[in-house]
Every structure is written in C-alpha cells, then in structure tokens.
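[job 0412] stage=complex_fold ligand=NAP status=START
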Amino acid sequence: MHNATLPIIAILGGTGKEGRGLAIRWAHAGYAVIIGSRDPDRAAATAAELNTLLGKEPIVRGLGNVAAARECDIAVLSVPYEAHAATLASIKETVQNKLLIDVTAPLDPDNKRRVRRLASGSAGQEAQQFLGENVRVVSAFQNVSYTHLANLNEILDCDVLVCGNDKDAKRQVIELARAANMIAFDAGPIENAVVAEGLTAVLININIQAKTKSAGIHITGVPR
Ligand SMILES: NC(=O)c1ccc[n+]([C@@H]2O[C@H](COP(=O)([O-])OP(=O)(O)OC[C@H]3O[C@@H](n4cnc5c(N)ncnc54)[C@H](OP(=O)(O)O)[C@@H]3O)[C@@H](O)[C@H]2O)c1
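[job 0412] stage=complex_fold status=DONE, emitting structure tokens
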C-alpha cells in the first residue's frame, strides 16, 4: 500500500526504459507513482505491468503527461532530449509551483557516443529557464543505467549528482534517491547540470568498450 504522507510522483515519459525503472523503485518504497505518456492507454498498460511486477495492491497509475503533471507533487521528466522542449511546453502550466526533476541527458543525434553541447548550457538549465522561477527544477539520475533499476533487491552501483538552485528541493531529491537505494550528493546549482548530463555520454563509451550496459559513477573521499 502506498504511504499517503509521501509526495505523489509523476514520471513523464515513464513508459520508457529509465522512467519505468525509477517508477518501480519508488513504488516499491511506498510512493504513489503516476506513469505519464503522450498516450494515456500506453501509460495505463505500463502501470499495469509494473503493478504485476510489484505484486501488491495497485500503487502505479497511468495518465496522459498533462493529467499526470496535474495530479502529482513531484514531476520527473524522463524523455529523450529530442522530446524535451515539446514535453516541457505541454506541462508548463500544470507544474507551476511544483518540483520538477530532469533526468534528460542530451546526446549528439548523429552519434550517441558523443555529448551534445547546448547553447543554453544544459537540459536542466533549459527546463529552469523555460518553466520559470516558480518551478523548482532539479537535475538528477542522468548517470543511473536503467538496466538494474528493476532488480529491486540490488543495491545500485551508481551515485547520483543533484544540481539545482533550491536547497530544499535538492534535499527532497536526495531523499528520493535514498528511497530507491542510491546515494546522492548535492552537486551545486543548476549550471552544474551540464557536468552530470555530459558524464552520460562518457559512460555510454565505457559501456560499449566493456560490453556492458551498467557503467556508473562513485564519489570517493566523502562520508557515505
Ligand atoms: N536508458 C538509460 O539507461 C538512461 C540512463 C540515464 C538517463 N537517461 C536519460 O533519460 C531520458 C529517458 O531515457 P529512456 O532510455 O527512458 O528513453 P526512451 O525509452 O527512448 O523514451 C522515454 C519515453 O519518452 C517518450 N518519447 C520518446 N520519444 C519521444 C518524442 N520524440 N517525443 C515525445 N516523447 C517521446 C516516450 O513516451 P510516450 O511515447 O509514452 O509518450 C518514451 O517511452 C533520456 O533523456 C536519457 O538520456 C537514460
């Protein structure tokens, strides 16, 4: 059963690989989770699959992205960079005064092994600028491979870098990472999101060379 004292999380693009993985981890931890999609039927089908995997009372719902953004306390944007601007435009009004976590890692469309450098700085900065100051944008989870998220008993071998301008919003995201069995670090203002987003391209190269899909990062030299 979900814990009604916890915030409701909507994952926009939650039908995809990363969004599904995060959804199952948070639902397992007791959060009410809404899968968002451009297609409400696809969202409902993904929600049903996740409820079956979780094997308990239904805790995951599926809705269109706008309705999901309306019904949540915390929105998580988990779409390819190519869909970033359009998805943000569709939910701009509904996420006002909420916390939005941006998971997007922009990659070069001609070569996914190469980082995509944006004139704006980063996807996280674009989200903050586009949504305005009343939305607390936090950039996080870009370096967490989807491959192990669904193995609920596995401790994830990847730390989370959390960037944003609002200290309390970052604290909430660090708590969400902990609930999903990961350790997260406040990595500074939203301008620093470019570093976390860029690291994803680095990890993709390491994965290709090591023939894996689960390369991650660890912060060393600090208490864990
Ligand atoms: N995969 C990973 O291991 C991983 C790890 C860390 C970070 N990330 C980042 O997380 C984000 C999501 O990654 P993913 O692997 O989950 O992506 P994905 O599976 O390719 O796509 C996620 C969802 O985005 C929506 N979408 C896809 N193309 C779209 C388009 N052109 N316009 C609008 N919506 C579109 C789709 O939802 P609907 O069709 O249902 O609307 C799709 O299910 C990316 O920015 C990625 O860089 C991924």
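Residues 13, 15-19, 37-39, 42, 78-83, 86-87, 103-105, 142, 144-146, 200 surround NAP (CB under 6 Å).
[job 0412] exit 0
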